[in-house]
Structures are given as C-alpha cells and as structure tokens.
Specification:
Length: about 375
C-alpha cells in the first residue's frame, strides 16, 4: 500500500521543462494529472547571432553592476561564450562588477563558472533587486541585466531614469507551446471547475495561460474559478506575482522547490475539498467523497464498511446503534445485525482495530482523539 494523499483530485500541470518529474510526483500520490504545457522553453533555440553581438557590446566597457536573473539563462550565456572562445574573457569581465543574483538558481550557475554574487534577495523577486538598486545613487553606473525570457525593457528604462547606463542581454525568449490544444483543453476544465488545482513553475506560464484564456473567451470564467474553487499552485513568489494583475489568489511554498510545491498541495487540497479530517486512535483520517485516507495512505473499502464509516462520521465519537448502522448499509445487504458486525470487522481490518470502538449493548463509535 502506498501513500496517496492526493487520491481523488485532478491537477493540471502547465510545465514544459521537468514536466515528467512533476507528473510522476503527483501521480505517485494518487492525483489524476492533466498535462498541458503552456510554454516551449528550449535553450537550443537561442539566437546566437544576437546574443554574441550583445556579449561583444558588454565586453567593450567596464561593468559596474551585473544582475543575474535565472540559472538557465546564465548557464546558457556562459556556455555559448565558451563556444565562441569568449568564455574566460566574459567571466573575467563580469567578475570585476558588483554581482546581484535574483535567486539560488542564478547563484548556482554563477558559482559554477567561478563568479560570486555580492547580494541576493531572500524573496527571489526581481522587483526586490530593482528596489535594492533604486535606493542607491546610480548616476553614471553601467548596469548589465541578464533577462529572464521576457523583455525587461521597462525595468531598464526605470533604472536609466535614475541615471544609470543600462544594457539588457536577452539570452533566450520564452515561446508559447508548439501545440496549443492541451492548454485550451485545460482552460475549459478550469472554467468548468473540473480540476482541483493547476501548477505553475514559471511566471511566463501564468501569462501564457491567461492569454489563452482571453483568446478563447474564458477569461472571466477562469479568474472566477481560481478565486473560488481551483487552487493556483506556484513554485515560488516570482511565479505567484504574475497572478496579481489578474486578481487571482495563489499559494506557494516557503522554499521555491518542486517537491515543496507538491507537498503543499497534499495539505491544501484535502483541507479545501470539504472533506472530513479527524484524529482517530492517534491516526489522521480523511474522508473526501468515497476516498478514504489514513495517515495519507489510501484505504480501499467495499460499499458496506464504507457505509458504516460514513454513518459513524455523521457525529464523530457518538455511539451509533446497530439498527441505525443496519439501515445505513447498501440495499441488497443481508438484513440482520450480523451484516453490521461483518461490515465493522472489515472496516477494522482496513483501518486498525482501535479506530472503531464497541460500546457494549449500545453499538459502535469512532475512537476520536484530540
């Protein structure tokens, strides 16, 4: 028996990169996954001519401040520079600058090539990097900003208004999915509220999904669904911020990691699903529709023991008489108290003998604790 805390839930996955890993994590926990890539991110589709020209421009003058935005962007840029025979020169050039990194992935990429950041925000938000810069006198400072798949021209313009000389380097561009049909299908599922949650691992994926929702005429339905019944689950605050302009609430874990996002859903989905969660004989019991989980492990029950459990859950901890349990059994069940005893025995076999207590001459009760 495996842990399946997400049994009975349908979850949309918008990731293109590392999608298989995420889908496997969710399916192993019992979720039904609808994979609909919102983006097509292929580092091999870099415009090398444009990137080389931008690199050579960066090398023409000293850099005062360098902002590293993404791990994949830094790795792709520095790897491309090595192919052109400019790798060592570019690393040495950027190494003389004050380096700011947006988050741990960009920090990791920098250090792989021997570069070291001076500062990075705990929030991992680019906006906080900008705030950090705006609090300083930038007059005459030459700032190079590695873009993160989308244009940062507005941010660059804001820094120029503060007196800086700003160069943006577009390493790659995030494009929409090659086949838009899956994302269109997911939008219909969201609008009809036939999914419980949708996961996002990149801010451009949020933009792509909402753009598709607008183009298919489902904008308002999708926003309303996210505001009411469907959880927008983001890998971190940067991705979550992309939903703010749409008025969509979202959740994200403290650590921007895929496993942490999945773990958060394990808690959030059952708690929001209107299911019943109780502490029974020292175990956590969750009943969501006909799905029963004990300490996160799915419990398979046939109709009769499930009916007994549902009857005992009406007033948890209260004694339920055998005749009342008999009335709760499915039609076609033998009409005697022996049928109740058999159903209780099967329930105990599935959940543990201590979960169901016998009250002599009265009936049965759930051993509710806490």
């Amino acid at each position: 028996m495996t842990e399946q805390p997400l049994a009975g839930f349908r979850i949309g996955v918008t990731a293109a990169r590392r999608a298989e890993e995420q889908v496997n994590l969710l399916e192993r926990r019992g979720a039904v996954v609808l994979h609909a890539p919102a983006l097509s991110v292929d580092p091999n589709q870099i415009d090398e001519v444009a990137l080389r020209a931008a690199t050579e421009q960066v090398l023409t003058q000293p850099v005062d401040i360098f902002v590293a935005n993404t791990g994949i962007g830094m790795k792709s840029w520095l790897t491309a520079a090595e192919r052109w025979g400019l790798g060592e020169k570019l690393v040495a050039h950027l190494g003389t600058a004050e380096i700011l990194a947006r988050g741990p992935k960009s920090v990791g990429a920098l250090r792989r090539f021997g570069l070291r950041e001076l500062w990075a925000p705990e929030s991992e938000k680019f906006e906080d990097v900008l705030d950090h810069l705006r609090r300083r006198d930038l007059t005459g400072k030459r700032i190079v900003v590695q873009e993160h798949g989308q244009s940062l021209s507005m941010a660059a313009h804001a820094l120029r208004r503060s007196g800086a000389v700003v160069t943006t380097v577009a390493v790659y561009r995030v494009e929409g999915a090659d086949d838009p049909e899956p994302i269109f299908g997911l939008i219909e599922e969201i609008a009809a509220r036939r999914v419980d949650a949708v996961t996002f691992t990149a801010a451009p994926a949020v933009a792509a999904l909402m753009e598709a929702a607008v183009s298919t005429g489902h904008r308002d339905e999708v926003i309303t669904a996210f505001q009411a019944d469907v959880i927008a689950s983001c890998v971190g605050p940067v991705t979550a911020a992309a939903f703010e302009m749409w008025g969509v609430p979202s959740i994200y874990p403290e650590r921007s990691r895929l496993a942490a996002m999945v773990k958060q859903l394990e808690v959030e989905l059952p708690s929001r699903a209107g299911g019943t969660t109780l502490e029974v004989a020292g175990h956590t019991l969750l009943l969501h529709g006909e799905d029963v989980l004990l300490d996160g492990v799915e419990v398979k029950l046939s109709p009769a023991p499930l009916a007994v459990l549902q009857a005992l859950l009406v007033n948890p901890g209260t004694v339920v008489a055998r005749r009342d349990l008999l009335a709760a059994l499915p039609s076609g069940t033998a009409g005697s108290e022996h049928a109740v005893e058999m159903a209780v025995a099967r329930l105990r076999a599935a959940m543990g003998t201590r979960c169901i207590q016998t009250v002599v001459k009265r009936g049965y009760r759930l051993a509710v604790t806490g």
